[in-house]
Amino acid sequence: MKKAVFATIFTLILATSLVKNSTKGIEDKIFMVYENIRPLKSELGDVLLEYNYLSSPDKLTQYQTQYFEKDLIKIDITKIKKLTEKQNKIEISNFIKKTNDE
Amino acid sequence: MSDKKNNVFLEEYENKFLYKKSKTNLNIEFNRIAFIFFIFLVISIIYSIQLLHLGSSKILNEVKPLIIKKNYRADIIDRNGNYLVKTVSSIDIGINPIEVIDKKKLLINLQLIFPYKDYIDISNKLNKGKYFYLEKKISADNYEKIMSLGDKSIKSEEKLTRIYPQKNLFSHIIGQIDDDNKGISGLEKSFDEKLKQLKKPLQLTLDTDIQFLIRKELLRFQNIFEAKGSAAILMNVNNGEILSMVSLPDFNLNKRETIKDVNYINRITKGTYELGSVFKTFTIASGINEGLIEPDTEFLDSKKSIRCGKKHSIEEYDDKMPSDLTVEQILIKSGNIGSVRIVRKIGIEKHKSFLKTIGILDKIDFDIGEVGKPQSIDWYEGCKLETIAFGHGITTTILQLTKGYAVIANGGYDIKPTIIKRHSDEQDKKVKVLKNDVSKKMNSMLRKVVSEGTAKLVNVKGYQVGGKTGTAEQVNNSIYSNIKINTLASIFPTDKPKYALVIMLESTKNNKEYVYEYRDGSGFKLKGSPRNTAGWTSVEAAGKIIDKIGPILATKYEEN
Q1: What is the reported pLDDT for B405?
Q2: Pick from B89, B154, B172, B445: CA 20 to 30 A from residue B122's CA?
């Protein structure tokens, strides 16, 4: 009985210290990862900002007039079609339903 | 003797040892160990409970008040995650001349790093002995070079800079901050504390692409009709989310100018206007809501002019207005006298209560601080009720007008206009404020105003646009002037409304060169504006705007 109690306590202490040790290791790793993510986040933010600026509608319109001869055309909603796949067959239908008052 | 040797003596062996339970300290030691073991057990149970508790509880980070960082301000993004505002930290380099040891050496070193600076001016500043900035928002390379000089007189200051990649596009909404990271207008002001605390970017309901297209068209028509200013708002009628809000003229936020000209006010939220006939929709909706009229209710033998009190008379704007009209025809033909007869049936209290319910009369609670307050009305003065029936003698903001149309169109549910994106679990419960059939009847009538009435130029194929025009004279010092406020309040599609679009052009002029293309399928074209009314200005602008944004709304927001 005495030996069993001692063994249990020893095992508990050993297990606790092992768990704590590994937890500390994981905590260190998490900290490292967080620290590594921080500059990446900042870099991503800067790249996104650049992307948002370069792909902003204002810039895209500017590029369009600068590099293409043809003007942009508006889409007639009544000419847009909808493709639906049903039993391996593609059905084509009008995107919007026509009403009587049009 | 020999006998003695051979004898074996047998003696009975008596074991005198008796096993007894020890009565020493052993029992006490065992109790101690058991006690320690028990303590360990209790501690481990407490730890386990704590771990289980932490594991099962939600992260409370959002609820906890966060520490406000000095040089931090959250970014602002649109509904698609595009940056509208981005915070970038920058470094300014200053020089304290008192700490300069060798002026000549410092100037030579600086010349190597910044070869294009005016060194006569810098030398003069050094002689004056006052702290000055050598370079603001220095690049990383130059920062490294200048700090490697190791001169004590060179000071670096970390500053916060807001970058606006969309330039003018959201200027009235976002607003500006001062040098101390304090919001001074727009969202920057009203969300000042929140922006300093938020960990994630603040997401808005606005769509950059739609905002760009609306602004581009509005600017075009502002120039065509030589308007002093203009405004456009696109709102989801079902949840109050604003997809676009443009007020012109606007300004480039990156220039950080101090705007003092009153023409730069936010015409959607701050400017309050008499908007004219767009209010006839409210008069008729109020009558239907009270069960006093139906779309086919007839008003017969209406005169061209009616007396109101002793001094005033109210007239039709058009002499050809028939004297017998149904309610629907009153709206389609925009009849003044018919509207007056309807409002007299409703009465002051009921009509006032209706306008209050749809949010026209009181100052609106909105996400930005620049909100105008509609003028208070003395309902019992002269013929106030009668003039309010056709939108005179009553002021409101474009934002409130849009809300009013949205409530009428969406089935009669109250909405809170917003530019801040909320998750589905944060949405308010829908409260019905109008009777069941009001929306259905009103939407059908508004559709006819577009297909048969004064707003034909916005009858864009495929979108079932419904709406009402309003041409009002601007009031200057309590006197009506010739300056026109031309408005179109529209909703679409009328069979199941999703969006409310309101366009307002202020102080327009006729354009003799502009060519109108009729939308009735005839291919007819008309050169020059026949009249300076909403039907020939704001309606045309709205038609062109729906042409551009319609496909995006129909495809991108199909499920919304």
Answers
A1: 97
A2: B89
